[in-house]
Each structure stands twice: as structure tokens, then as C-alpha cells.
Amino acid sequence: MAKRGRPAADRNHVRAVLARTILEAAEQDIATGRFAELSIDQLTRQAGISRSKFYVYFQDKDDLIRAFFSAVWEETTPAQQAWWTLDENATQAELRAALAGLVRAYGPHRHLMAVVYDHALHSQVVRNEVDAVIAENITRLARHIRDGQRGGFVHDELLPNETAAWLTWMA
Asked: What predicted TM-score, i.e. pTM, was given to this entire model?
């Protein structure tokens, strides 16, 4: 008889809750740049969960960091979409509001994103995920720039791909 596991939606929910629990417990270490030094034992102890429970939901620290990154991406997507959906009728105030929304959305995650990017330097798995998300962001923003050029509200001399890459990495 096959062993029944949790439905995928339940498993993903528990995984997200555990990632948030670990993130909150490690917040000080993340803010001070010491997260990379922490072992799984230290992380689980700080979060008040067992090491075995950690390994039920995460393969390793790379997997945990990818879960952090996914959560930030999901949380900041509405702010990104507010930027991408601006059109030729957008006022300067709407542009400022969209940019302020991006800053508000990403600001609380700046230390965590530094952890993700730092970890991507020595983890190919994390780097692949970061690169995929960055590439998607650049593609969307370049499309928005080209649409704006066709619509006459973005300067024709802007290079869409280069500008999108610069803005994305700057953010």
C-alpha cells in the first residue's frame, strides 16, 4: 500500500509558514550579515523547530533561501505590476506613486535580498532561480519600454533591453 502524503497545497502552505518562522527567527542574523554563517542546526534551534521537520520541507539551506526569494517575489509582484501597467496617460504623480510602491515593497526585504544575492554567488541552484526571475523582470520591463516607444510616451532613443537591465539591477 502506497504511503499517502500531504496534498501539494497543504505541503506548500506548511513550507511557506516554516520558511517565515525561520526567517523571523533569523532576522537579526540577516540584518547583520551573519546568516551565511548559520548552520541548519542553529537555524532550527532559533526557530523552535526540529531539524527533522526542516528536512521534511527543505532539502538544504539553498532550498530555504529559494523559499525566501519566492516569498519576496510573490509579495512584491503587485508593486512591479503597478509599474509595468503605466501607460501614456500616466501622470507624474502616478509614476512617482508606482516608484514609491516599489521602494515600499522591496525596502523591508533589502537585507534578505542581500542574503539571496550573496548566496547566489556560491550556489548554482540559487543563482539559476535568481537569474530566471531577473531575466523575466528585464523581459517585462523591456516590453513595457517598447510599448511606450510605440505609444509615444517613452523616448525613442532609449535602448529597451539595456535600460530594462540597468533599471532591474539598480532596483
From this structure: 0.78
